[in-house]
Design brief:
heterodimer, A: about 130 residues, alpha+beta, three-stranded antiparallel sheet, 9 strands, about 25% helix, B: alpha+beta, Gyrase A, domain 2, Elongation Factor Tu (Ef-tu), domain 3, 9 helices
Chain lengths: ~130, ~375
Amino acid sequence: MSEVKFSKEHEWITLEGDVATIGITKHATEMLGDIVFAELPEKGSNVEKDGTAGVVESTKAASDVYTPVSGEVVDTNQAIVDDPSKINEDPEGSAWFFKLKMKDQSEMDGLMNKEEYDKFAKESAS
Amino acid sequence: MEIKKTSLNKLHQSNNAKFVEFAGYEMPIQYSKGIIEEHKFTRSHSGIFDVSHMGQLFIYGDENLTEELEKIFPLDLKNLKQNCSKYSFLMNEDAGIYDDLIITRIEEGYLIILNAACKDKDFEILSKLLGKKFKMNLDNNRSLIAIQGPKSVEILNSIIDGVDQLKFMTGNWFDSGNQKLFVTRSGYTGEDGFEISISNDNAEKFVQNLIEKGAQLIGLGARDTLRLEAGLCLYGHELDTNKTPVEANLRWAISKSRLSNGGFIGSKKIMNQMQDGVKQIRVGIKPEGRLIAREKTKIFNDADTQIGEITSGTFGPSVNGPIAMGYVDSEFSKVNTKILLEVRGKKYPANVCGLPFYKKNYVKGVN
């Protein structure tokens, strides 16, 4: 599996073959607070880089989830729809959102590595 | 304008509060445990709320004042005993609501608790209505602390002996150390609890004492989910100058004896509405599934006609599901009426339901 990469919209992404797994970062969940609702893209649909691909809602507000790369949705994580609190518990592990079959792997190039993202998150939080 | 801070601001900071601006004040929306934990702790133990941003208006006077206030509020104040409280409204001539409030008769006159965002305007309106006949003091030197939840009576009574004798919607002055506190048995969470008016200088120490006894600080986020589960209105959401108490389904708060003769501001409109009914009325709404329908969500009937709008909507931690309140056309206001909510361009099923969503635990008493 590839190194974890991060987007400015606070998603994380890993690549295995041509299938990317995408979720939201721990930092994002801390900003959102208790997550109580998650909506995921439909399996078989196509999503475009930087387009919306879902929604999460905390007790406070609704936020769009963006996809950092384009592709066809090949799997979604029903467990986080059934129990959205899982997203707060393990955002960068078992609470992944969806898997995409990527068309253009060069879309990964512009994303941040862990160190860059941590710095970005710290700056955007202050 | 510079943001205002309450006397507990430093205490909030040292308890890792996340702050928001609310009605010109820097207020804690939550602490480190988060809204759901704070909400549940209040329901099971005892939560402390800094509500010092709310207005504490003392109006001093005798029976003349009572008579003047009866021209303003739809209450039978002549028969309101000393130390008893009533929920009421400040209205315009069309019965539009300027503010909702709690008024308590005290020895010296009345104490009125006002919403933070409305208090200055309320003061202006009341000053005009009452003229210069009565001394009025919107007291900025006092903080207001709410303690809510089943353990609150035990905790507060260990600090202020005798508060356990207060009945719901009554209050009194208490001596604690060498300070005078005004304590009412009331609140806005659907739980048994108290609100304590205390001088700013003593507030922080008092709250630290409550924390030592096992109560915890709770932010405005949980205050909102608690009040919504209890089916209680929030000014600026369910209530504003475009809504009347009848439309807001708050006719219970209007004293029966005042409905026959009127004589208070807005009484004509209210009496008409009581007779003829209203076009739209406030109801409870439960979306099916987990969908959250927030304020401004449009409500439709099955013929695709818009019939109303959500005024508050969130996830209810104790209900363990989404809850909302809103206004619908009166013919759709019956419990169990099927309605549709438009969220992110799609329509989702929901049901009109009775309020509250969560059963109240008030300690009842004669009032």
